Amino acid sequence: MALRDRIEFVREAADTLRDTGAILRLAVEAMSDACGRGVAVAFTREARDFTVMAEGELLPQESKASHPGWIVDIDCVPAWQQNRWIEPMQAGIHGPDYFSPSHPLARVFRSHIPDYGRTMICAEGWLVAWAGVFVDARRPFSDHERTRLGESCASLAEPLRVSALLSREEWTSTLSVRQNQILARVSRGWTNKQIAKDLDISAATVKTLLERLYRRSGCGNRIALAAWMRRLG
Predict the structure, then answer these.
(1) Which class is 175-232 in CATH?
(2) How far apart are CA 121 and CA 130, in angstroms?
(3) Same topology between domain 3-165 and domain 175-232
(4) How confident is the model over 80-89, as pLDDT tens digits?
């Protein structure tokens, strides 16, 4: 292969990985094929990209969950749960109460309590993407399904991680000057009042901008937000 062709190949590969939606669709298709039943799900941390496939069919936009509803610390995922196939119910991590009527995927499963397995795609312990399969708890995963899904997760981890990080890099570049100013001061441990005084804006404005940053970053507090900014830098 000529040098020019190699460079073009690398560019095409990079462009493909930047299309997070396409990568997530490929991920749910792979996991759906590996299991052959249930609901395959994949999304990025901010849930800006969320793909669901039920019984081999992609669900329409209106059926997708708006946000996964975390019950774990996604800023510090335990090493044994990172980038590998885990069945939380079997491992004793999550119980049936996790699937309450308010769960984003509740209407997909209707009245059945599902069991599920998943991989949490992490970068230095920090979750960037998630992919898994939900099945009826009355028909748990077979050994064959576990093996195939585990192999799929191992293969999907790196492209999902790279795609999610590339997507995040593009997304964070759209932050406004004011948002970056506030992030910088939050990382120094400043209070809302201190930030407001320094930037000559109201504390209410600081609070509003911070709430938007929490939603966009997926962070739940100022410490996580400061750590998120450090990772971006």
Answers:
(1) mainly alpha
(2) 6
(3) no
(4) 999 999 998 8
Write 101-104 long-range contacts (CB < 8 A, 24+).
102/69, 103/69, 104/65, 104/66, 104/67, 104/68, 104/69
Distance CA 133, CA 117 (A): 6
Task: Tell me the C-alpha distance between 44 and 122, whole Å.
Answer: 11
Q: Class for domain 3-165, per CATH? A: alpha beta
Phi/psi-derived region of residue 170, left when phi > 0, alpha when psi is between -120 and 50, beta in every other case: alpha
Angle at which helix 203-217 crosses helix 192-199, to 10 degrees, equals 110
pLDDT of residue 222 exceeding 80? yes
Q: Domain locations in the chain?
A: 3-165, 175-232
Report the alpha-carbon angle 219-223-224, nearest 5.
30
Q: pTM, whole model, 2 decimals?
A: 0.67
**Mean pLDDT on 152-164:** 88
From the CA atom positions of the chain, what is the Rg in Å? Answer: 20
Residue showing tokens 């450090």 = 230
CA pair distance 34, 187, nearest whole angstrom: 43
**Is residue 49 scored above 80 in pLDDT?**
no
Edge-to-edge strands, sheet with 126-136: 57-58, 50-54, 39-44, 126-136, 114-123
